Amino acid sequence: MSDQMFLAAVIGPMLLVLGLSILLYSGVWHKIASEWEKNHFAILGMMVFNLVFGLVVINMHNVWEWSPYVVITLVGWGAFLKAVIYFLVPGDNFKALIKMVNCKCYYQTAGAVFGALGAWLSYLVYLA
């Protein structure tokens, strides 16, 4: 199995499950993000994971040619950049960023996009 297929086999179902969770439980995700507004240190572990995950994906698959698998590269860079912003933006400014994107419409849109991308990658790896 190539690195590209391995990453797609991991990232596809991950995005599908995350997208479905956000769509089905957007109210819960909204409450979680509201807690992050109060205490941004609560997501420190998640941001360390995003930093490592993003770097692994970037180093295994940093391909910018137009193909279905460019989604893998975008997910890797997205995770990495999210962690960089968390670690380099001062706490009060980071809390303001969380507050800015903490609306229910964001969760429904993000859930639909993540779910669709995850379903597509999963289809390419497991069914096509």
Give an account of the 3D structure.
By secondary structure, the protein is an all-alpha fold. It has one domain (3-127). Helix content is 83%, strand content 0%. It contains 6 helices and no strands. The protein has helices at 3-24, 26-38, 44-60, 70-88, 91-101, 104-127. Helix 2 packs across helix 6. The protein is globular and about 45 Å long. It starts with a helix and ends with a helix. The relative contact order is 0.22.
What string, H for helix and E for strand, traces the elements in order?
Answer: HHHHHH
**Share of helix among residues?**
over 70%
Low-confidence stretches: none
Query: What is the overall shape?
Result: globular
Question: How many β-strands, per DSSP?
Answer: 0
Instruction: Give the N-to-C terminal Cα separation.
Output: 15 Å
- Taken together, the total number of domains comes to 1
Mean pLDDT: 91
Query: Helix segment count?
Result: 6
How does the SSE layout of this entry go?
Blueprint lengths: L2 H22 L1 H13 L5 H17 L9 H19 L2 H11 L2 H24 L1
Give a short summary of the structure.
The protein is mainly alpha-helical. The chain has helices spanning 3-24, 26-38, 44-60, 70-88, 91-101, 104-127.
Short key terms for the protein model shown above:
single chain; mainly alpha; 6 helices; 128 residues; 83% helix; globular
